[in-house]
Amino acid sequence: MADKSLQTLLERYADHAGEDAIQQLRQLASLLTGQRVVHVNSTRKGGGVAEILEKLVPLMQELGIDTRWEVIEGNEDFYVCTKSFHNALQGKNIRIPETLLRVYEEVNARNAERLRPILESAEIVFIHDPQPAPLLRHCPNRIGKWIWRCHIDLSNPYRPVWKYLRNYVVDYDASIFSLDAFAQPMPHPVFIIPPSIDPLSEKNLTLAAKVVRETLEEFNIDPRRPIVLQVSRFDRFKDPLGVIHAYTLAKQFVPSLQLVLAGGGAADDPEGDVVLSEVREAAEGDPDIHVLSSGHYTDRTINALQAGADIVLQKSLREGFGLTVTEAMWKGKPVIGGNTGGIRLQLMNHRTGFLVETPEGAAMRIRYLLFERRRIGQIGHAARDLVRQNFLITRHLREYLTLMVALIHGNEDRIELG
Amino acid sequence: MREFAIKDCALAHIATGRRAQTLRELRDILRDVHPGCIYHHFWGTLMRPQFSNLEYNNDFASWCFESLHDSTAAERLSAIDPADYANLEDLRQELLDVIESRLDETELILFTRPDQQFSFVRSVIVVFDTYRLLADPAELAVAVPQMSVGSIFYHFIDARRRDPVGIDDFRAWLCGEGGGYEEVCRKIAEVDPYFESLHDLRARLTGLFARYFGKGAQLENRNG
């Protein structure tokens, strides 16, 4: 095995995704030689977008693509406004005051003054999410293709807010959504690029068995008895009460069963506390239900919980892509998930997990897997393979590169190069 | 013998925003949807996340089975081999004929949940050269396991749409240059490309070429 400290980033990913996948990235990237690419978002640290860019940008640079990552700077009102955008685009009826909208526009105008030379001279500009969307309007002499990358589920937006933002987005050359179901009609090509996980991150690194065992014991979870786990916010759409119901039904047949519900409530979600107190009430009196609710667990702790579980649940009633499903599958776990959103793309009954509609369905699958324990290993193995082949960051990068080549070469149905 | 140029490809997926909730809606949209959607839902589906042992070989059939719960329509749609049709318009017509006949024979109006509608997506395929050339067929035993799944897709799946007689590039190369490779061509022809992932397909072809050409042939060729 090569000395890890001497490996390039691409070589480290080759260990997981395969040398052929990395070679393909190099060849695709060679078609983009000389192109200047800029990514713009609103934060350097924290949140899913920054997590992706932290890896995508160095990978693109290592592939020889001149890539920059710029971050717009805003004030408190700006972030209040964009947080409201986020919630409204996901369906909440939120009226955003005109004063906040003016702040949003002014912040973008101010950032455009600073970023204009970089943005106007780039061949490809990726604008991530609504925060920097108006930048395009402030770059009239742009030479490149501008792409709006929407990481949000826009399937059912609060219309007045979407109508306002759409005005900024329609002028882009293309947009990207994570799932077809999340997309809104646009006058330009709408690309579909599912998200991915990073096998080198703290969330997904392979942990030593000792670390996993110690983490379980830290929370008084018995590593010798079967464990089912759901990692998610305490949100009704994640159906934590349904999970407890499923566990209760399954426990009648598997008395040693333990349930771990790990997650937190979002700071801006007052309903989270209500759901959490309902969960605590439902769990009361059963020492085998572990509600880990501080919400401040490190990525490594969540990783250890996933690695230590026998079965992972994601019994959502509504879900975006469901990256917690992907993470558990990467750890070789069979996942029982709600038949919704991106979970449907990842789970196939008896092959990589199970899709269920009800707590009863989830209970039946828990019982089946704990009865036929060899299936846990078999399904987990297939699940990890599916993630390796389709949901690692290297695939995500390949699709970005393909999109760039497609846009530069005119977006024909068939582009033959070389 | 002419050389075999190994190409690679990648697909970008573009949403059309058109969705069907019933078989009738599927038929109506199919009549005028972008031909790239027909390509995507027959051929491009093999480049998307999937599992070994697929039950149906195209998205239309899978949707009829999984979301519409119409097994009859699913079975008939899955019997369509896209390589049998000279172009995407002929393939579109066959799809319409199969769906029309199903609509004629049933009075049931089956519909899906809103979140399980059929979403029409089209593909953009980017084909690029790997600058690797094979001069001797025995080199396939070494080259195929090193190919990306994009190369496997291009030479084994996409080729069937490009080739006038609907065969893959390996057979076109081996059989197009005179005799001597009929047996391996027959073996390749027996590999059904529609029921496993491209990774599994690569492993299957790797085994096939290794068995046929043997390790000795590979080494001799590499050293020679």
Describe this structure in words.
The complex is a heterodimer of chains A (418) and B (224). Chain A is α/β, with parallel strands linked by helices. Chain A has helices at 9-17, 19-30, 48-62, 76-89, 98-121, 159-169, 209-218, 240-251, 270-283, 299-308, 323-330, 343-346, 359-371, 373-390, 393-408; strands at residues 36-41, 66-71, 124-128, 145-149, 174-177, 190-192, 227-231, 258-262, 289-292, 311-314, 335-338, 353-356, 414-416. Chain A has two domains: 4-196 and 393-408, Rossmann fold; 209-390, Glycogen Phosphorylase B (Rossmann fold), CATH 3.40.50.2000. Chain A contains 15 helices and 13 strands. In chain A, the strands form two sheets. Chain A has a six-stranded parallel beta sheet with strand order 2-1-3-4-5-6, sandwiched between helices. Chain A has a six-stranded parallel beta sheet with strand order 9-8-7-10-11-12, with helices on both faces. In chain A, β11, α12 (343-346) and β12 (353-356) form a beta-alpha-beta unit. In chain A, α2 (19-30) runs parallel beside α15 (393-408), α7 (209-218) crosses α10 and α13 crosses α14 (373-390). Chain A is globular and about 70 Å long. Chain B is of the alpha+beta class and 224 residues long. Chain B has two domains: 11-122, no CATH class; 130-223, no CATH class. Chain B has a two-stranded antiparallel sheet with strand order 1-2. Chains A and B meet through α2, β6, α12, α14 and α15 of A and β1, α2 and β2 of B. β13 (414-416) of chain A pairs parallel with β2 of chain B.
Quaternary organization? heterodimer
What is the 3D form of chain A? globular
- Rg of chain B (CA only): 19 Å
Strand order of the largest sheet of chain B: 1-2
What is the radius of gyration of chain A? Answer: 22 Å
Main β sheet profile of chain B: 2 strands, antiparallel
How much helix, percentage-wise, in residues of chain B? Answer: 40-55%
CATH superfamily of the largest domain in chain A: Glycogen Phosphorylase B
Order of strands across the biggest sheet of chain A?
Answer: 2-1-3-4-5-6
- Number of helical segments with 4 or more residues of chain B: 10
The count of β-strands of chain B is 2
H-E order of chain A: HHEHEHHEEHEEHEHEHEHEHEHEHHHE
How far apart the termini of chain A lie comes to 35 Å
For the record, the CATH architecture of the largest domain in chain A stands as 3-Layer(aba) Sandwich
**CATH topology term of the largest domain in chain A:** Rossmann fold
Report the total helices of chain A.
15
Overall morphology of chain B: elongated
Structural class of chain A comes to: alpha/beta
Task: Provide the domain count of chain A.
Answer: 2
